[in-house]
Amino acid sequence: MNKSLSQIKDYTYHKDSQVSWIGGYPNHWKLLRLKFLCSIKTGDRNTEDRRDGGSYPFFVRSQIPEKIDTYSYDGEAILTAGDGAGVGKVYHYINGKFDYHQRVYKFSDFKIASGKYLFHYISSKFYNVALLGSAKSTVDSLRLPLIKDFSVCFPINPSEQEKIVGFIDKQTNKISKTIRTKEMQISLLKERKQSLIQNAVTRGLDPDAPMRDSGIEWIGEIPQHWGISHNRTLFTERVEPGKESLPLLTVSIRSGVSAGELSEGENLRGRVKIEDQTKYSLVQPGDIVYNMMRAWQGAIGAVTTTGMVSPAYTVAIPDSRIRPKFFEYLYRTPLFIHQMDRHSKGITDFRKRLYWQEFKQMLTLLPPLDEQDRIVQHIDQESTRIDRAISLFQRQIERLKEYRATLIDSAVTGKIRVPGVEDPARQEALA
């Protein structure tokens, strides 16, 4: 695809920058602080990272923790007005979604070094070096004085800058195109997995099985020997207090019920102290748990370990006619997520709640138990194969991103000499 960095030539001589994260740089390059290379302005706004009106915006998290009215992530925690996020990320509810509040620094009026060269340089260095290495607070801020004194090494010759920028653009475009192709393959695999699950839990595994009209428009045809039942005949509600020694489990719209308590680093909810364990609900293996606030998005699943869950969750005990894992697969399909959405009460999405009385009125498909077992086994096997393929593509994407970042960093700091650029030191030595 691309040359490895070891195959790209480097410059013959370097001088010490006296800057730890720059190290040496080519003799004919210059080292200046950013404030001598361009004008820098600040402002707060939410926008995309793109060139805007001839200047280049770079985004850094604000050093001022913002206050938020409410915040919910998979129903795992609620921060109320007056709480500081304090975990390096600040969210605002904007246009129907939570978004970062970021501080924008705009660079313009470029001198000596071109704007595009600085764009690559700063994009490469600010977060990984300046932000993480120089930030002085828990929210990873980068103040204007730090930005102004940020060290930049660069070739004085505009032609060399242009060749470096051209090399970076050409190589990163190739890498980005490959990444997009792999991301598309991941999307197709996820669609295939979703289709596989929905077909299995709503039509069975036998394509030649006789079908009948379910009598329910949104369900359509089902295998002739399958039943349909209201949840009130299949489940009873579990209302038992939690115990201090048990792990606190969560329900995610992405992965169902957690197998164990998530660490503090994995989950914001881990930072919330539990003052009264009795307010939490006991869950046992085989129970079905759903998040009342996020059921309309598919936050439902089967429990595999004894634990306790938030009082915002509802716990249901299935009877002997249904396998919990089959039910989880069924209710995490778009068809049945939509059913939960229809039965949820609330004037807006983020105020919707699926209460027990509404859950009981919902419908569930009932294949014979042995067929439920075969369906679950089939989905597990096929999903594992698809997940492995997805994981492989994801690892490839991460390696490509790492290579892209290293390539940019090496080119803009003179660690490699891009094709078409001469080495003055070598020319002088040969003269």
UniProtKB/TrEMBL annotation:
<keyword id="KW-0680">Restriction system</keyword>
<dbReference type="GO" id="GO:0009307">
    <property type="term" value="P:DNA restriction-modification system"/>
</dbReference>
<dbReference type="InterPro" id="IPR044946">
    <property type="entry name" value="Restrct_endonuc_typeI_TRD_sf"/>
</dbReference>
<dbReference type="GO" id="GO:0003677">
    <property type="term" value="F:DNA binding"/>
</dbReference>
<dbReference type="GO" id="GO:0009035">
    <property type="term" value="F:type I site-specific deoxyribonuclease activity"/>
</dbReference>
<dbReference type="InterPro" id="IPR051212">
    <property type="entry name" value="Type-I_RE_S_subunit"/>
</dbReference>
<keyword id="KW-0238">DNA-binding</keyword>
<dbReference type="InterPro" id="IPR000055">
    <property type="entry name" value="Restrct_endonuc_typeI_TRD"/>
</dbReference>
<comment type="similarity">
    <text>Belongs to the type-I restriction system S methylase family.</text>
</comment>
<keyword id="KW-0378">Hydrolase</keyword>
<feature type="domain" description="Type I restriction modification DNA specificity">
    <location>
        <begin position="26"/>
        <end position="180"/>
    </location>
</feature>
<dbReference type="Pfam" id="PF01420">
    <property type="entry name" value="Methylase_S"/>
</dbReference>
<protein>
    <submittedName>
        <fullName>Type I restriction enzyme S subunit</fullName>
        <ecNumber>3.1.21.3</ecNumber>
    </submittedName>
</protein>
